[in-house]
Amino acid sequence: MASRYSQSSVVTTVVSNYFDDCASSHEDVDLVSQRRDSETASSSHGNASGSTTTSLAYLPHNKVLSELRHEAFEACVPTGPSDNGLVSKWRPKERMKTGCVSLVLCLNISVDPPDVIKISPCARMECWIDPFSMAPQKALETIGKTLSSQYDRWQPRARYKYQLDPTVEEVKKLCNTCRKSAKTERVLFHYNGHGVPKPTANGEIWLFNRSYTQYIPLPISDLDSWLKTPSIYVFDCSAAGMIVNAFNELIDWGASGSSRDCILLAACEAHETLPQSAEFPADVFTSCLTTPIKMALRWFCKRSLLRESVDESLIDKIPGRQNDRKTLLGELNWIFTAVTDTIAWNVLPHDLFQRLFRQDLLVASLFRNFLLAERIMRSANCSPISQPMLPPTHQHHMWDAWDMAAEICLAQLPSLIEDPTAEFLPSPFFSEQLTAFEVWLDHGSEDKKPPEQLPIVLQVLLSQCHRFRALVLLGRFLDMGPWAVDLALSVGIFPYVLKLLQTTTPELRQILVFIWTKILALDKSCQVDLVKDGGHTYFIRFLDSMEAYPEQRAMAAFVLAIIVDGHRKGQEACVEAGLIHVCLKHLQGSSTNDSQADPLFLQWLCLCMGKLWEDFTEAQILGLQADAPAIYATLLSEPQPEVRACAVFALGTLLDMVGDSCRDGAAGDDEYDDDEKARAEISIVRSLLTVVSDGSPLVRAEVAVALARFAFGHNKHLNSGSRWRVSASSPLANSGIMHGSPLSDDSSHHSDSGILNDGVSNGVVNHSRAKPLDNAMYSQCVLAMCTLAKDPSARIASLGRRVLSIIGIEQVVAKPMRTTSGSVRPGEPTTASLSPNLAGLARSSSWFDMNGGHLPLTFRTPPVSPPRPSYLTGMRRVCSLEFRPHLINSPDSGLADPLLGSVGSSGASERSLLPQSTIYNWSCGYFSKPLLTASDDSEEMIARREEREKFALEHIAKCQHSSVSKLNNNNQIASWDTKFETGTKTTLLHPFSPIVIAADENERIRIWNYEEAIPLNSFDNHDYPEKGITKLCLVNELDDSLLLAASGDGNIRIWKDYNRKNKQKLVTAFSSIQGHKPGVRSLNAVVDWQQQSGYLYASGEISSIMLWDLDREQLVNSIPSSSDCSISALAASQVHGGQFAAGFVDASVRLYDVRTPEMLVCEMRPHMQNVERVVGIGYQPGLDSAKIVSASQAGDIQFLDTRNHRDAYLTINAHRGSLTALAIHRHAPIIASGSAKQLIKVFSLEGEQLGTIRYLHTFMGQKISSVSCLTFHPYQVLLAAGAVDGCVTIYADDNCQAR
């Protein structure tokens, strides 16, 4: 079946305004599937015109058990969004700030240093001021103030101090003052050495003496000792690399324990001189760092085609403000920031990018501008350097994008200056970069180079005109997987999308919710930021809005669930904002309005509430007051297992977890008294008991966890199991709950007669203040726990045992002896055979009686009158640890579980040992996966299915139209000794591979390739085999088939990868038969699977036929069998969904159709001569649903047409009183019967005997044993026969062998 969470709706809704074509393509797919369904429907009624169309009716189009939950339920332990570890690396370790800036200018205007020979004309401008245009001292002060104001634009809140042509003492005082003022913040030290000699080889910079008659060196080590850390140095002088080299010797940057946070920016290498060309300012490095737009445009203008039309002086007149993106200057600055950020992001390691470009605003600005300095100065053969070192970026292709944007802006400049009212045309830079990002999204993947436009997308979020498109593309990127979310977070997306939650723009809501879903699916730690900024209210409003699609509101519920997950402030904020009312309102609405009932939405409403209530008493009380248990109880019958499991989780979190002794002290009890709480708990537990035997392990696991919470809270009452007596006539003893029947609420009225509670345990009076609940409820709970402890899923059985251990019941489970003796059934616990002797002990060993002898148990509280020990083989009783604390650590205390050792200890440590729910973490995984695109393997799956359909149709036609030739001993093509000690119980031929599957009485499954004669796999169906496997079926045989193994006790287990050695995985498991007849020891379950409808039919020693929908994993009907006898054979039609035939022990045959109101179509008694059980039954090949074949143990085979109720139209007396097996080919006109007398007979549908296969004497004179099972290949005339001696032989007719 199609996946429940249709991806089309998410695409079309989240990205609706942008990708209209997505919706139409999905509609096309739906139309195709509808057309195909209608073709199938029309062809399945009556005779269709063409053989192909007719044949299509034989091929089912549905697929079950292929959801996310079936990947590996048994093995996997899901993890939810992480709140620590690798993913939080994107967060800057701590935000830094440059608090103080010290500027040291050594210009000594009008005096050139001795080591510099200047050219003419020479670079003169300092801070865009000509120092010779005014008096030297005034020029010096003006330059100092200007530099200070240029820095101030990048970090307005810093304190600025400068020294002009200073002495060493003045610099020392300046540095000490700055460090003292900045405290732990960063200090910037800017040194301009254009009026002093180059730094020395020892790394000394030059200053002046007081009278300016000497240059005084300042060792870099002194400077470092004054400024300490954190610091950043800018050295604008020739040979600045000398200083960097000296720092490198002084500080060991690579030392692991180094705490030095010291950054260096230097104008050139150690051997280089600053450019003197008049086209540059003298302080070209400083100009790049502090006035990048002016510097970049002037440099570009000289190299551009615009140099003729744009005068350089116009650059100083560019209109607008740098921080206003709607002006020309603001847009240029915005583009420059985007370009330099992008270059840095693409060339730097991510942790270095974080440190330099995201931690400190001033450092980030300086490094962006440093990239420009490198580009400009390298054109003058000068290489600026930094520590940490950056790779070369001057030739990065993003500079071309900057040049183009600059050219477009400059081209408008003359007209804008002429007419100040004219509006400038925004640059196409951002829309072009978004298009480039979109192209990457169409073709990129995790394995390819990341999209270089990511920092630009972040910048675009600042602009209203591009914001929606940028968010949609960002959403598509984040959907590619957790790696993409991590990349986006490390580029710095988080503060932007957090701030956007303050906007009220309606069209952004859906995509913002999607983006936050993706972020929180990776990193839960963002919950703190959301609550701090009040972001939770945004999602509550969205959750409550009716315009949004349910899938999107499910995402909002997911975000809110993360916000409240283990975060008390989040829980309190959401309760205050009315989240409980909103969620319960929509859950109530879903039960009345079908269009609202989207499964994903319901699932997350449940999880959101469960997480809100978890360990938060005030919220639990609000939930109980709002009648939440009743609202959630209705969800327990929803068709989606995920919804049912999440509803159980939510109900479980409402159960009181406070221990009995301190329950009355719980917060909020004043407003919600004990009686109301008890009523609510009874209501919740009753609801839980209805799904103890749900078809989905997902649901049952949550029931086990919820019952563990209940058991923990009511330990003392449940622990006194020995004080309850269940009389032999009580419905509790025989209700079959242990075999999985749903518990009815009306059993509580038996509590007075059947259950006594004297309030005393081992002579110790129970002083608990809290009122115990109804005793019948406690006994039902223990029965439910025992049911879970026997669950066919090993994971749930283990949970069930842990729950039992909480209330002091241990299981003594030993793997039974595999034996072939007749006295005890193979694979059954030996205690089971003693159960009839225990009938008189009902009052004293009620647990054992209620378990029907199937579950050996140990009690930690001894009964008041212990029964004689000789009756209780396999049981142990130990005193309750509450009364024997010295035994807790003793080796012979018989503790089966770590939980048992903690019963008397403090509540907190006990609670940590309770089984934990996994549904929340498991459900979170859905949002980590891509939601907007279909999985890549779908095309491959479709191709494989089409290939199999073609194969099936060809072979169906051959089967129908070719006459079957003889089948006898000469036709044997393979023989396999399975080595089954107890013989082959059932076999199955794979439709598309030369594989035969066999199973035995001990529930061992073996798989063999009969062409190559090699074993493929062998495994146990489960660890404690009891009844043998009675049926093997393939589920989804046209796709990746699953192996369904039905045990004699009605337990169903479905396996994937069953033919890969030791790679088999359990997909699902459940008990298909519930509530067997009183006094029945063995169920003898009969089961059949119908792919057309997705139904599994199961019956046995019960008075009804259970109808399971495997897509819903739910019991959808219990059909009365209309007979006092039990069913011995069951066959579902493989062509007509909903139709099946049943053969009974009294030799009667009944046909059913679940689509009709009365279900029973007809009843016949064809085997009247010798009334013995029906051994085999099945529909005849073809589309006629009225014709069936039935065989009884007496040996007669009856051909029936249900349109003639009275008599069989053909009878074959195949064997004399020993028929053991019947096989009917799905498409060829052939049947086969097997006998206990080592004989197989093959007949045509007209009754003609086509052959006899005898098990011949071997050369040693031994006879091979009797036939135990027969099965035909679905699409070829191949017959597999299993024998009691464990041998499987395969026969092919002559035509098949020839082919």
Automatic annotation (TrEMBL):
GO cellular component terms attached to this protein's record = cytoplasm; TORC1 complex
- What are the Raptor N-terminal CASPase-like domain coordinates in residue numbering? 95-248
GO molecular function per UniProt = protein-macromolecule adaptor activity
Which SUPFAM superfamilies would you find in this protein's record? Answer: ARM repeat, WD40 repeat-like
Keywords in alphabetical order: Repeat, WD repeat
Using the UniProt annotation, give all residue ranges assigned to the region (Disordered). Answer: 30-54, 737-757
Where is the sequence biased in composition, kind Polar residues?
A: 40-54
Show the ranges annotated as biased composition (Basic and acidic residues). 30-39
Q: Which Pfam families is this protein grouped with? A: Raptor_N (PF14538), WD40 (PF00400)
Q: Which biological process terms from the Gene Ontology are attached to this UniProt entry?
A: cellular response to amino acid stimulus; cellular response to starvation; maintenance of shoot apical meristem identity; positive regulation of cell growth; regulation of autophagy; TOR signaling
Q: Which family does it belong to?
A: Belongs to the WD repeat RAPTOR family.
PANTHER family to which the protein is assigned, alphabetical: REGULATORY-ASSOCIATED PROTEIN OF MTOR
Q: What is this protein called?
A: Regulatory-associated protein of TOR 1
What organism is this sequence from? Morella rubra
